[in-house]
Amino acid sequence: MAEHGTDVIQGTLDVIILRALSLQPLHGFGIARRIEQVSKQVFKVNPGSLLTALQRLERDGSVESAWRITENSRRAKYYSLTKKGRQRLKVETEGWQLRAAAVARLLGVEG
Amino acid sequence: MSLWRQLSRGIADLWDRAPRDRDVADEVAHFREALEAEGRAQGMSAAEARRYAQLELGGATQVRAELRSVGWERAVATFFADLRYGWRGLWTNRVFSLVAVCTIAIGIGAATAIVSALRPVLFDSLPYPAPERVRAVVEWSATGERNPGTFGMYHELARRSRSFEAMAVHTPWSPTLTGDGRPERLSGQRVSASYLRTLGVAPTRGRDFREEDDRPGSVPVVIISHRLWQQHFGEDSEILRRTLRLDDEDVAIVGVMPADFENVLLPGADVWSPLQFGLESGPAWGHFLGTIGRLRPGVDASTAESELNQLSAQVIAELRPSTYGTQLRVSASSLQDDLTRDVRPALWAVLAAVGVVLLLAAVNVTNLLLARGARRREEFALRAALGASRTRLLRQVLTESLLLSLIGGAVGVAMAGAAVGAIVAASPAGLSRVDVIAVDTPILLFAIVLTTVTSLVVGLLPALQASGQGSLHLNLGTARVAGGRRRIRSVLVGAQVALALVLLSGSGLLLRSMRQLLAVSPGFDAQGILTMQVQASPRRYTEPGAVDRYFDDVRAAILRVPGVTEVALTSQLPLSGDHEAYGVTLASPPDVAPAERREIFRYAVSPGYLELLRIPLKAGRTLTAADRDGAPRSVVVNEAFVRRYFRDRDPIGERLWIGATTGEPYTVVGIVGDVKQLSLAGDTPDAVYTTPGQWRFAHHTQSLVVRGSTDIATLAPAVREAVWSVERDHPVARLTTMDAMISETAADRRFTLLLFEIFALSALALTAAGVYGMMAGIVAERTREFGLRAAVGATPGRIVALVFSFGARVTSVGLVIGVVAVVLGLRGLRTMLYGVSHLDVITHAVVLLLIALVAGVACALPAVRAARIDPAVALRD
């Protein structure tokens, strides 16, 4: 697995986080685990980068946060998508799909 | 919305960062607990789970730091932290900070003040539209002397010239304003109708002069200043229907000038009236007018000048005016250059002094910061070792420099404000445009830019040095690095000693020159004399001798004032700015070649005038009441005149004409001592004295000189009332004491001197601070060495001598360089000096001693400190 990069591709962390939050509000650790699960352990997120990205997104108005009690009765900060965040997720997903398809075609031709 | 959120969160965060820090810590802690829980769920022991969490998280501290660095407010917070840290540092080193702030303040304050003062005079263009097109048209005689213009030449040039769209002439005019209240003497100008048009300005109310106003014999009209409209007419909106009673004649007011109109050719003028001259009138070719012109757009000055020269030669050839020589040169320099011609060299000298002071300040602060940087090397090395990047350290040092110069700059600007007030108050009345001097927005901006640039330039050098490689190799090659730095600083100190020497010497020379000037004898006894000018209306005293009888009555009235002992009259008063001169023709062939003949000052004086001023009689007799109209004409001449015109002959009994060679010549009856007429500094002019009765014109304006037995200034009101007791509405002008008038003639020099004194004091203060800063820094650096020397037996006296000899070496090198600079650089000051050479030994010796003394004191403090160093403490540190 080491030869396949486990770091999130440059510039995609924000949209991945937004996607992870699109179903339900999650706390930081939850988001990290959700990303690992859904990507089938391909992507591992560095907690530092994750939390920094969350701060940035919150500043930006794409997510909002609130302190809540977790299932094991611990205080944690839950993040949820805002209207603006949903809009951004939609736009960036479409953009990503377009580019991914193009890259896939290019690589397919090359291969 | 997003921007607003960014801002509001950022500001809330800056306000109080505790909540956010708490949030961040909580969130990171939660993350770690969740990781630990996960580890335990996978069957790890508590310790293993903790290590696993640690590994995954990658250092909680670092994550927290990363999180905190999000957002713009963090950069601001860092800046504030730097500022706080910097402030703490400056506060702990109060002496250093005070010296640095004062240095910057003096440099910026002096520079701002002087540039503010000089800007209107040297740099700002005149306050007229297209000011570069306004030219001074000046005639120069074959011998290179400046001739006042004539109406005839102006009239012909204006008619024939294609280069100028307008030309105008002007001459001062002092009409007497009567009517209601006390008679008043106004300051004004008689001008050609084109005057305001040539300057490019127009009245705000009413109209400009028209060509028909300017024809001989037209109805008299005036345009008045905004100030006169305000003060005399209370801003009457019906002003254009009113009249002024000037010189016993009612004149219609046709216009009011705008409030911001600056009449640079005669700053205090309140009224303007058309000249009403024709080419046929008598004085048409008399040299008494100033001429200006406005170039057509696109015409350059040299084209205009060659046209003027061609035309003036034509005019002289065609019209043959007798007052012109055959060779005449006409120049058309810009009016501004022409106005500042006399003061320009002095102002440039002052500006150079500004540069020197600024340089001194910069050198000094650099030096101080270098010294401080040396003492902080360990601190920086420690911070670098703890992971502070080089940029971070540079930023810290730059922030501190900025803080220093901001404080220094603020103090400097405040000082400049005060200094500009003092400069305006001290400036001589004649200096053009002094009333517009102020510290204004551009100057403030200049000061701020100066502050910032100084801080960056000055801050960067020590910052680079402190944060550079030297700081990381703390104990390697310290001596070499310190030696290099010491050399830089020695050079800096030497430079500032040299600069201070130049400034101080310049000021010293001006000071001595001023002393000499005030010690010059004016040729008469000025003490205890009250003077005033009285103007009798030329319309009222038209009969022959009438005006002389009026003045006789005035003298009698003043003599009745208790305390007055002597009264006399003169047509012109020495050192008052009066200038009335004529050519002289001797009946017998003179001993002097035509080229050496000079114009002579002609005084019409009442009997008793020469005695009252204590002008010594050298031969013959003085004028008496017997020398009246109808008696043989008598003249008393002065010694300078005798020296020039008579050489070996006995002048008594010689006959001569003054001015026109018509009528009976004057017979020389006496010789008196010389009197300074124009200024104390100038040459002693040739002079002749006649009585008013024996002169071909009546004198309607006379100066009274009064001597009293008591303090003369206190008699002024009573004397004025005595004048008015004879005739109510004659103005009494220029009421002052002779002493005051004499000190006024030194006003120009006093002004320049004041500026130089400010500089010299600044320079001395800066030098003291600089030498002290350097010596203190070096002693601090060499603490260990001094401790070692003390430990192996050096006495305190030996160590003091060591410090002193170093200081003396650096200072004396600076002094030597300074002396060379003085010898070469102060030549430019020669025109300003009177009775003292620019190489005056006494001045320079005093200045050298003064600097040496200051340097000595500045060395003494650190030297004593060095001697007190405890060897044990010094070696342990």
Explained architecture:
The complex is a heterodimer of chains A (111) and B (877). Chain A is of the alpha+beta class. Chain A is built from four helices and three strands. Chain A has helices at 13-21, 28-38, 47-60, 83-110, and strands at residues 26-27, 63-69, 75-81. Chain A has a three-stranded antiparallel β-sheet with strand order 1-3-2. In chain B, the strands form three sheets. In chain B, strands 1, 2, 3, 4, 5, 6, 7, 8, 9, 10, 11, 12 and 13 form a 13-stranded mixed β-sheet that branches. In chain B, strands 16, 17, 18, 19, 20, 21, 22 and 23 form an eight-stranded mixed β-sheet that branches. The relative contact order of chain B is 0.10. In chain B, helix 7 (151-160) packs across helix 10 (301-319). Chain B is elongated, with a radius of gyration of 38 Å. Chain B has 877 residues and is α+β, with helices and mostly antiparallel strands. Residues 470-480 of chain B have low confidence and may be disordered. The A-B interface holds A 27-29, 46-48, 51-52, 55-56, 59-61, 72, 74-77, 84 and B 1-2, 5-6, 9, 23, 26-28, 30-31, 33-35, 37, 56-58, 62-63, 66-67, 70-71.
Which labels suit this protein?
heterodimer; A: 111 residues; alpha+beta; 3-stranded antiparallel beta sheet; disordered N terminus; B: 877 residues; 52% helix
Give the oligomeric state of the chains in this entry, treating copies of one chain as homo and distinct chains as hetero: heterodimer
* Main sheet overview of chain B: 13 strands, mixed
Q: Tell me the total number of β-strands of chain A.
A: 3
Greatest interface by residues involved: A-B, 19 and 24 residues
**N-end to C-end Cα span of chain B:** 58 Å
Approximately how much beta-strand content do the residues of chain B carry?
5-15%
Main β-sheet description of chain A: 3 strands, antiparallel
Shape of chain A: globular
Strands of the widest sheet of chain A, in order across it, are 1-3-2
- Structure annotation, total helices of chain A: 4
